[in-house]
């Protein structure tokens, strides 16, 4: 699980003071933890912790600091407020905060939903910011759970297997997470305390739906004080808990604000970095940045990929080429393999479905118009499988198809889906291959 963003509210006066960075390292050393162990306890990535300790992160996000405080304060016996003060005289971290995937009111609303339901699922396409929002909400709610927040990464579990095997795999990860403090002393057989009061985040669960739902039923029966927050690209259930869709970043600024304040544009500029040469050039090209964000569908991860590529390629040239899926990738190995490029992310979603869905997507990819009605898509599908109308809801559910909000019963392929489907016979570019290296 990663949380590598440095946007936020300027909690530490615009940058992390060196003594605060040293304090994080000192508290970790007091507990005898490596950076990897602190990552395991806090739910942050090793890369984020390393950058925080080195003082490389400007304006760390409130949720990152709250998760660190929860891990470091909870382990050493000092009250969390004292640790917050030691880490930089921080304000109350439970206050609502600005997140890159939603306004404070959105975070508040989602936090209320998670608190009111023992199971909540955040849904949305790959790259929309489900994990970030889940961590923001978890940091917001963490102080209300006696045993804190526990994040469990499921994205690297192998797909397939029967429901029992999936359930066992998910429960094993949950057990190891919830018993991590006792496992060393009691061995691998340490049992979860039935009195646990915690928020459990099950991240990237779309490929093990049977396992997540089986584990959820067992956990809810055995642990009445545990609330579960799942992130997934598709619905896992309509009968348990609440489903909430995480939306892409808005492309328009609020009335009276500059274009740079539009959430999608603001994320692009923050990720690019104020000190980069490209940032200075873009001050006069903000309409081009807005157009690029529009073509990227307002998806935060796609925007970050484009910002990384823009360090080597001028924005006008990038727009003249599309951009294309091959230009949008990252060499960040803190990301799961299917999260490191637009192509891999889309193929991961397609692979969740069957061959018949792919045939329908291939028909959609060949349509000349951007927006279409179902009759146009099914005309090219033929009679090679089940009624294609029964497949459309699955494609909408995984956000591979999107409704055209201006025209009822009109649809369009999500950004880059048609291109990836047409080119999917080609090898996905490895990091180091594209021109924006």
From TrEMBL:
InterPro entries in the record: Cro/C1-type_HTH, Lambda_DNA-bd_dom_sf, P-loop_NTPase
Species lineage: Bacteria, Bacillati, Actinomycetota, Actinomycetes, Kitasatosporales
Domain (HTH cro/C1-type) ranges: 24-73
GO function term, MF aspect, one: DNA binding
Family matches, as Gene3D superfamilies: lambda repressor-like DNA-binding domains, P-loop containing nucleotide triphosphate hydrolases
UniProt cross-references to SMART domains, sorted A to Z: HTH_XRE (SM00530)
Annotated PROSITE patterns: HTH_CROC1
Source taxon at top rank: Bacteria
A Pfam family it matches: HTH_3
Protein name from the UniProt record: Helix-turn-helix
């Amino acid at each position: 699980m990663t949380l590598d963003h440095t946007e936020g509210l300027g909690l530490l006066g615009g940058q992390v003071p060196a003594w605060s960075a040293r304090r994080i390292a000192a508290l970790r050393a007091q507990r005898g933890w490596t950076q990897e162990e602190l990552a395991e306890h806090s739910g942050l990535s090793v890369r984020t912790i390393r950058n925080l300790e080195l003082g490389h992160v400007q304006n760390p996000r409130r949720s990152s600091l709250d998760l660190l405080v929860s891990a470091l304060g909870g382990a050493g016996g000092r009250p969390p407020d004292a640790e917050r003060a030691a880490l930089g005289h921080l304000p109350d971290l439970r206050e609502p905060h600005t997140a890159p995937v939603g306004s404070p009111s959105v975070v508040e609303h989602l936090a209320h939903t998670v608190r009111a339901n023992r199971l909540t699922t955040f849904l949305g396409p790959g790259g929309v910011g489900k994990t970030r929002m889940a961590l923001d909400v978890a940091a917001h709610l963490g102080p209300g759970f006696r045993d804190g927040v526990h994040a469990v990464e499921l994205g690297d579990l192998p797909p397939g297997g029967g429901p029992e095997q999936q359930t066992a795999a998910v429960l094993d990860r949950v057990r190891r997470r919830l018993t991590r403090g006792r496992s060393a002393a009691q061995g691998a057989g340490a049992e979860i305390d039935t009195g646990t009061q915690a928020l459990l985040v099950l991240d990237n669960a779309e490929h093990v739906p049977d396992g997540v739902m089986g584990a959820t039923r067992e956990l809810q029966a055995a642990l009445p004080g545990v609330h579960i927050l799942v992130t997934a690209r598709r619905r896992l259930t309509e009968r348990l808990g609440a489903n909430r869709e995480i939306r892409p970043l808005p492309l328009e600024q609020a009335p009276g604000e500059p274009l740079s304040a539009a959430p999608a544009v603001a994320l692009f500029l923050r990720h690019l970095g104020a000190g980069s040469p490209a940032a200075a050039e873009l001050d006069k090209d903000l309409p081009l940045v807005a157009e690029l964000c529009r073509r990227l569908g307002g998806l935060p991860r796609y925007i970050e990929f484009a910002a990384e590529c823009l360090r080597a390629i001028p924005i006008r040239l990038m727009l003249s080429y599309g951009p294309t899926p091959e230009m949008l990738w990252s060499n960040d190995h803190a990301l799961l393999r299917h999260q490191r490029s637009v192509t891999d992310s889309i193929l991961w979603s397609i692979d969740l479905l069957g061959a018949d869905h792919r045939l329908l997507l291939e028909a959609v990819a060949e349509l000349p118009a951007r927006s279409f009605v179902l009759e146009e898509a099914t005309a090219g599908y033929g009679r090679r499988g089940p009624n294609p109308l029964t497949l459309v809801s699955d494609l909408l559910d995984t956000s591979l198809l999107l409704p055209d909000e201006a025209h009822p019963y009109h649809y369009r392929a999500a950004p880059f889906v048609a291109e990836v489907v047409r080119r999917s016979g080609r090898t996905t570019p490895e990091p180091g291959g594209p021109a924006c290296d």
